Amino acid sequence: MTRLTHVKHGPYAPPVAVRELTAVSADGARLHVESHGPDDAPAVVLVHGWTCSTAFWAAQIRDLAVDHRVIAYDQRGHGRSPASVRYGTDALADDLEAVLAATLAPGERAVLVGHSMGGMTLMAASARAGVREHAAAVLLCSTGSSRLVSEALVVPGRPGRVRTWLTARVLGSRAPLGPVTPVARRILKYATMGPGASPVMVEACARIVHACPARVRHAWSRVLDTLDLDHGVRALTVPAAVLVGTADRMTPPVHARTLAAALPDCVGVTELTGVGHMSPVEAPEAVTARIRALVTAYGPRTERDELEEADA
């Protein structure tokens, strides 16, 4: 049974969707999907990461939905999408294709934004017909394509087999996270956020992450442990921007630089000083601004755009 827990007030309280629907993936998995903003506006699709949910994008949705159609969905087993017996990169790609087919008209293009495992979803699906039909540009946010465990800085110490082994045990723990306590907040902040993250930011992330069922968290950790999507990066031929925080312990900046070097059409790398892994929460204005810039540069022209230009 999935759970949804988030803050109820403030900038990280999720806005109410204009509409909700269920997308059905190739294996029958049911995915909770939300649409925000005007139907005739340029589309943005937000894909969250491991242990998160649509609530993770609250700040981006609130800002972008003023003049964009914002689509967000819960990855299988997260938020309001039921758990599945199938986990893996093919499932991530199937799910994204199902959401795009359920929300976008044939040939309609959108800017796709993936954070962490959401970015990996875009890489896993990069060669899929549905993604090539609908992707105008992508933002790979705080993510990597391979060597996730060996490059992670969650466990202090010298790189090598011992640190990699300990990191895999920490990230792959089967233990429930339990209630959001002061100790839990400190642990989450250390592992996933920059030192300057405010208590409001930490609280928002803690409530979302702690709501992810332990068995779902563990199942996806096993996928991430052996992840190799380097081929998917090379197949991501649309304009792609990369964003990372300099204090990211989960997917440190080395991943962003590797992605930038491998992408066929990299249109910029943004490094946010002092920001950790939860960049859309820690630096909402910067992330939203990068999304808006991609829509402006590569997004489709809408009937509204043409009318505004005619009036001018």
From TrEMBL:
<dbReference type="InterPro" id="IPR050266">
    <property type="entry name" value="AB_hydrolase_sf"/>
</dbReference>
<dbReference type="InterPro" id="IPR029058">
    <property type="entry name" value="AB_hydrolase_fold"/>
</dbReference>
<dbReference type="Pfam" id="PF12697">
    <property type="entry name" value="Abhydrolase_6"/>
</dbReference>
<keyword id="KW-0378">Hydrolase</keyword>
<dbReference type="InterPro" id="IPR000073">
    <property type="entry name" value="AB_hydrolase_1"/>
</dbReference>
<protein>
    <submittedName>
        <fullName>Alpha/beta fold hydrolase</fullName>
    </submittedName>
</protein>
<dbReference type="GO" id="GO:0016787">
    <property type="term" value="F:hydrolase activity"/>
</dbReference>
<feature type="domain" description="AB hydrolase-1">
    <location>
        <begin position="44"/>
        <end position="289"/>
    </location>
</feature>
